[in-house]
Amino acid sequence: MAGAIRVSVEDKRFPGTGKSVIKGLNLTLKEGEFTAIIGPSGTGKTTLLRIMAGLDRRFGGNITGVDSIGMVFQEPRLMPWLNVLDNICLVADDPSTDDVKARGRALLEQVGLADWMSAYPHALSGGMQRRAALARALMPGPRLILMDEPLVSLDKGAAKELVELITALWQENNYTIVYVTHLVDEAIAMADRIVFLSGSPASIAGEVTIPLPHPRTDKDIARVRETVVAAML
Hints:
The protein is built from seven helices and nine strands. The chain is α/β, with parallel strands linked by helices. About 35% of the residues are buried. Keywords: ATP-binding, Nucleotide-binding, Transport.
């Protein structure tokens, strides 16, 4: 992926009902930028990610500048009959090759699961399963990573650790990230920019830049929270 990614959704309708869920949405993502998307339930945040991932092609509009994508879903979606390493390698063209296995082991080391490669998903905590899902998203070597509320249902400690891991991987690898959340503080903790969706059908209602260095403390987040919330109104 070279340069900016441009997303244009002129109209997205639900099959069957014909109801328009997103209309007139235009979004430009700079290379290496971390963009958080916030909006009420039902404003098409997950639908937008699915469109960007190529999982939903039934929409009016186009997306340019994307050539490799990794996606982290709300649920880890690990295969219970495969161990952690095999789950990570599953998305490769040939999961059985030595090169793929070596890359899988390296990724699991990066996300802190080096000692759990042979374990099965049921043996992992919720936070560990999310780390495994993140490693799987990185397996194809994407430049664009889409994340759909990956911290949902995690306790505060596990969520904080995952925020730190995602931020570190982003900074080290210059990924372009689009991160959906309904929590303002979560968005402030990581993103360069927060984009707000609202309306029915949904469109971009506004955005705000977060001019804070990393790592961001609770005091940093509190200092800009009021500005972010005001921009959402």
